[in-house]
Amino acid sequence: MAVSIRLRREGAKNRPYYKVVVADSRSPRDGKFIELIGTYDPKKPDHNSTLKLDRIDHWISQGAQPSDTVRSLIKKNKTQAASAPPEVAAPLAADDESNVTVEPAAVVESAAPAAVAEESPAAAEAPATSSPLPE
């Protein structure tokens, strides 16, 4: 089976929107596909596509042939991923616990109520007993 990575047209008339799919080359353009691996919006300026580069590499290693447009989208996304600053790439690595940081303000806020409660337990109870109940 000859597999291709190509665009599947979505959207309304004069408002195109494409999904990047892996499909049998014999199936129709908007027909059955194997896997959805990205999107492309030609009307949007700048960063107008999202691709799962790991899945694209997998399918290309299996012999899938990308179309000319998809090939250019892959190239553009790989250069954007390589030039992305580390701050943007850090949240994507959720498994790596070395990137986890705790903001000092959050530590101060969470520690302050505990310190007040430990200093005077009677003070913590006083507001509950001194508040008048409506009768």
How would you describe this structure to a colleague?
The protein has a domain at 3-85: 2-Layer Sandwich (S16 Ribosomal Protein, Chain: A). The protein has a five-stranded mixed β-sheet with strand order 4-3-2-1-5. It has helices at residues 53-61, 68-82, 86-89, 104-119, 121-130; strands at 3-12, 15-24, 35-40, 49-51, 65-66. The longest helix has 16 residues, at 104-119. The chain is α+β, with helices and mostly antiparallel strands. The mean pLDDT is 78. The chain contains five helices and five strands, in the order E-E-E-E-H-E-H-H-H-H. The protein is extended and about 80 Å long. The protein is 40% helix and 23% strand.
List the topology elements:
Layout: E1 3-12, E2 15-24, E3 35-40, E4 49-51, H1 53-61, E5 65-66, H2 68-82, H3 86-89, H4 104-119, H5 121-130
Parallel strand pairs: 1-5
Antiparallel strand pairs: 1-2, 2-3, 3-4
Q: Report the structural category.
A: alpha+beta
What average pLDDT do the residues reach? 78
Distance between the termini: 80 Å
CATH topology of one domain: the name is: S16 Ribosomal Protein, Chain: A
- The parts where pLDDT drops under 50 for at least 5 residues are none
Provide tags for this entry:
5 strands; alpha+beta
Short description:
By secondary structure, the protein is α+β, with helices and mostly antiparallel strands. It is built from 5 helices and 5 strands, in the order ββββαβαααα.
